[in-house]
Amino acid sequence: MDGTAVAYVELHHRVQMGLLKALEVQLEGDLHAPTARETMQRLLDFTRVRFQAEELLMRLHRFPHLAPHAAAHARLLGAAISAGYAHGAGEGAAARDAVARLRSWILDHVRGMDAAFEAWCARNAIDLE
Fold this sequence. Notes:
By secondary structure, this protein is an all-alpha fold. It is 84% helix and 0% strand.
C-alpha cells in the first residue's frame, strides 16, 4: 500500500477515534444533550460505513483473512450499538463503560487486524487508492 492509501486508512481511524473522544467528553456532561445523541449516531453511522468499505476492499482483493476480520467488525459494531442503547436508555455509567471498551477494542483492532491487512496489501503490491 502506498503512502496515500495508508494516509486514507489512517484518516478513517482518526475520524473514528475523534468521534469516540468527543462522545466520551459529552457523556461526562448531560447524557441527554442533543450533541451526545448526534455524536453517538454519527459514530454508529461512520463505523458501519467504514467497516463495509473495508470489507468490500478485502473481497475485491481476495484477502484470505476476510471472514475473521468481518467477524471482528461485527463484534465491534455490536459493541457500538450496545453503547448507543445504554446511552439512549439514560444509563450514563453503562454508556461511558461501553464507549471506553469500544475505544480499547477499536485500538486493538487497528493495531492488529487492520495492520495485518495493510501489511498483506503491501506484500502483494495492492494499491488501495
